[in-house]
Amino acid sequence: MTVWLLGDQLHPESHVLDGADRVLLIEATAFADRRSYHPQKLGLVFAAMRHARDRLQDAGYEVEYRRGDSFGDALDAHFETHPGDDLRLMRPPSHGAADRLRELVESRGGTLTLVDDDRFLCSPAAFDEWHGGGDFRHEDFYRWMRRREGVLTADGDPVGGGWNFDESNRETPPDDWSPPPVPRYEPDALTRETLDWVEERFDTWGEREGFAWPVTHEDARDALDHFVTHRLPEFGPYQDAMVGDEWALAHSLLSSSLNLGLLGPREVVDAAVGAWERDAAPIESVEGFVRQVLGWREFMRHVYRRTMPDLAEGDLLDRSRDLPSLYYDGETRMRCLDEAVSHVYDHGYAHHIERLMVLSNFATLVGADPHELNEWFHVGFVDAYHWVTTPNVLGMGTFATDAFTSKPYVSSGNYVDKMSDHCTACPYDVDATTGEDACPFNALYWDFLKEHEETLRGTGRMGLMYSHVDRKGEAEWAAIRDRASKLRERAAEGSL
Ligand code: FAD
Q1: Does residue 161 register a pLDDT over 90?
Q2: For a substitution probing ligand 1, which of 392, 394, 398 has the most ligand atoms within 8 Å of its CB?
Q3: Is the interface score ipTM higher than 0.95?
Q4: Pocket test for ligand 1, best of 292, 301, 323 (most atoms within 8 A of CB)
């Protein structure tokens, strides 16, 4: 029997390793040839795999590290050495992946035993038993998880005065705020060698210099401790804020480690709750963070599992325009978009509000094909995997599906102005809707609501938005339409 570890299943204490002697890791390159991925994303995955190989060897495992074009090539070599071997694999979350891998193994005369994915706390069986059928509601799931896991609860009730503290968690920092420190994990010789190879071997999009992501469990643990000590206290109040020249604010930057399995969700949640128990972080921040990891991350995984393949097909709003070139070259005078795209280019990362209310919001309003946006996220972000990027982009980000959201997250420039300091430094006027210097978000927002009125007016909580739509007269609509259409042309020709 051999344990087959995929490149995002790297936790040294994963239960898949229990009782194993031999471990197989396959470094396949074909997937990375298909698209121009961010060099930090490819470098991170390959460097983390190579470090896991060395760590497992040091721990006494017999490690087979096979490099090849595809999984098929590497499995050919494996079964030549170990004919009829049984491979034990943690069930991968991507749709159809387990069946594809089983087919690859069985067609080479081997067998595949699948075990539960311990990178999540809630198993498919537990989720399905809890959910039954009907709508997917995050808040219900989250409260159930809090009680089930005994996190921030006492006798089934929430500790600290409530289930959520959203009202306290929508602040923006004062002008003289000094952002808490962000740790850097300088590449060692193996990571540098991996990054060099990635740069030479693949066509990439993004900046390789400045790579500082954790590539080992030890560094990821350190990143967790660093976050809990230095940034968690301010995570809550500033989680929706955007500040010029600040890419991390008080966010945890732990998604790449969680999604690679370098960290487990339980240790992350326990570390945050521990800070509250020691009075080292306020309940608003700790609950806000726990909600993301115990709630949203687990919820997205199950919604994806339950709604694929429909989730990834079609578009409720039928959009087909190309994603504007500014997403690739960063060429725009719009300060919020310029910042967000450059964070992705420089780090393979942008925080949640930039992803949702800038990058997705703009693509949605401009009418870009949500599937192209999904691809863009997939190649550009260090934490992107099909199971998590797809529901976030197609559900929450663009409303291509209403599988678990009742309305699109769209806004005019007003939201960006409220939550950031970008608009004061932007050449566009956030208070204007029409006219050459008007913030592009404004006309595009109203035009979007008008264009999709038939689908959206009766949807979920859109009443307030449409009450504003109803107040506009014919002349105002004509000017908005004209401005929106010019903006779409300019976005298409790359001159926004
Ligand atoms: P923090 O803000 O510190 O949050 C803590 C943790 O909570 C994250 O590390 C992450 O593991 C989890 N989390 C929070 N929100 C979500 C969510 N909606 N779905 C899943 N996990 C969540 N997250 C990814 O891991 N990979 C993606 O490819 C991805 N694509 C996204 C695309 C869009 C359009 C949007 C709106 C969100 C996306 N997210 C994705 C969710 C979220 O934005 C990131 O998890 C988060 O920004 C990562 O940064 P962080 O580790 O600093 O997170």
Answers
A1: no
A2: 392
A3: yes
A4: 292
